[in-house]
Amino acid sequence: MSQHPKMVRREFLSNVAVTMPSWLLFLSAFSPENLLAEESEKYDPTKHNYSMGIDIRKCIGCGRCADACKTENSVPREPFFFRTWVERYVLPVEGEIYVDSPNGGIDGFPEYKGDSETLRTFFVPKLCNHCENAPCVQVCPVGATFTSQDGVVLVDASYCVGCRYCIQACPYGARYLHPVAKVADKCTFCYHRITNDELPACVEVCPTQARVFGERDANSSPIRRFLRFNDIKVLKSYLNTRPKVYYAGADEEVR
Fold first, then answer.
1. Cross-strand bridge partners of residue 233
2. Is the CATH number of domain 1-255 3.30.70.20?
3. Which pTM value belongs to this model?
4. How many CB atoms lie within 10 A of CB 126?
C-alpha cells in the first residue's frame, strides 16, 4: 500500500534532518503543516479572518517594526531584505514628492535637504497586503504560494522552486528571494504567533499603536473598530487585488 505524499515528505525530512543546514531546518519549520502541527487540535483556521490596519497619522518613523520583524522572522540583515519597512514621504511646496526608506527605516531617516521648502512629511509602513485576489498566488507554478483558510497569504518553503514569478507579480514589492535558501519570502502576519493568539511582532512593538491587527469579522476586534471609525484606503485599489491591509490618514500621495 503506497504512502500519502505528506507522509512520505515527513519521513524524508526526518531522515535527512541531521544533515540539513540550519537555515533549511528553519524554513522547513515554517511550512504550513508544521506551522499548525502543535496547534491543530485547538486552532481552527476556518474560524478566523485576519487583517491589519495602519494609521499613518500615528507613525513616527522609528523603524522598530521593521527591526522587530527581522529579529522575529530571521530576515537577513542586509538593507535590501524586508518583510516590512517604513517609507518617508516628503511633500515640498514646489516640485515632486520625495520618497525614501534607508535600511527600511530601522536606522532612522537623515535630514531632508531639498531645493524647496517642505510642506509636510509623514511615514508609511509597508508590508505584504495579503490580498484576497493575490497575483502571487495566481502565478506560482507549483502551488508554493497560497492563501490559508484564515486569509493569510503564505509560502511553503519546502515546495518553492525559487522561480521568482511571485516576486515579479507582486505589485507592492513585498517579496524577496532568500539569499541562502533561494526561495521566496515575505510577511506572514507572524503566522506562528497569531495561531498562538499572539500579535504580530511589528504590532506588538509599535510605540504609538499605529498598527492594528485582528479579526476582520468580529464586532469587538480592534481592526473592525479601526475600519468603522476611520476613512480607509488600500494601496493600488485600481488593481482589484483586494488588499487586507488598510490605511487611515492616507491621501493620494501614498502609493
1. 247
2. yes
3. 0.84
4. 23
